[in-house]
Write a structure and sequence with these properties.
Ribosomal Protein S5, domain 2; five-stranded mixed β-sheet; four-stranded antiparallel β-sheet; 5 helices; 11 strands; about 25% helix; elongated
Length: about 260
């Protein structure tokens, strides 16, 4: 008699033996490839390949009015698009709850770190530069949050800021980089599968996870945390995730520095 083993059974069997597919350890990342300046008509751009997940981020600056509660400062506006070409689970149409959550998690980390000097975006009392960060998922295989944060940060750190002259944005000549404060933010996303704490879940693992935790940090501080799904993490698991995040974020920052030539 032939015995049929489901993907879930196979995954749980691997985890029970202390392993993941392809021999990856519980708290290891897949291979990461980061490239900048991928969109010639954007102010800044980057692609990240995280395993088989691929995201593209473009940054555009546009002149607008300051927000009432932040007079004299520009704004960060982050959006995400889950393209149908990336996965059969995505469809065309207005942003889905998954896309909105994705954009908000990436935005929250960048905003909380103060990466962008928003005061330097002021043009005059009535005009500011607003920074639009648009993230496109080109291929989905899990862990969009960390891939999106890496690509967004790399794109921002290589963004050229246009000049504003005679009522128009000038995008030619020797333009300066967008002014940032050096607080490079990265994120590490964990999931629970079969009672095991995993870092950087691929698509098959995400289908089985009961809880998700994203921790965004710079070199010295946790800047944001986002819990997802209905499952839970123990205090010990959260402490392990925090410790591992500070360790892994050093590697992630080095990947960004190498890509931007810093």
């Amino acid at each position: 008699m032939q015995v049929r083993i489901t993907n879930a059974e196979y995954m749980h069997e691997l985890l029970s033996k202390g392993s993941r597919e392809f021999g990856r350890k519980f708290l290891d990342y897949r291979d990461i490839r980061l490239q900048v300046n991928r969109m010639p008509h954007a102010e800044g751009s980057a692609t990240v390949d995280l395993g088989h997940t691929k995201v593209l981020t473009g940054v555009k600056l546009a002149v607008g009015e300051p927000q009432r509660d932040t007079v004299g400062e520009g704004s960060l506006i982050t959006s995400a698009e889950l393209l149908p070409l990336a996965s059969g689970r995505y469809e065309t149409g207005p942003p889905t709850p998954d896309a909105v959550e994705f954009a908000r998690v990436v935005d929250r980390g960048i905003r909380a770190s103060g990466l962008i000097d928003t005061e330097a975006l002021a043009i005059d009392e009535e005009k500011v530069w607003n920074v639009f960060v648009d993230i496109y998922v080109l291929n989905y295989d899990g862990n969009l949050f960390d891939a999106g944060t890496l690509s967004a940060v790399a794109a921002l750190l290589t963004t050229k800021q246009p000049r504003y002259e005679d009522g128009a944005a000038i995008r030619d000549g020797n333009l300066p980089l967008l002014k940032t404060n050096g607080n490079m933010i990265t994120s590490c996303t964990y999931g629970k599968v079969g009672g095991k704490l995993l870092l950087d879940l691929d698509g098959a693992e995400e289908d089985l996870m009961s809880a998700r935790l994203t921790i965004a940090n710079d070199e010295g501080h946790i800047r944001a945390m986002q819990k997802g799904l209905s499952g839970s993490f123990s205090l010990e698991e959260v402490e392990t995730a925090i410790d591992k995040t500070f360790e892994r974020s050093k590697e992630l920052r080095e990947i960004v520095k190498k890509a931007i030539g810093d």
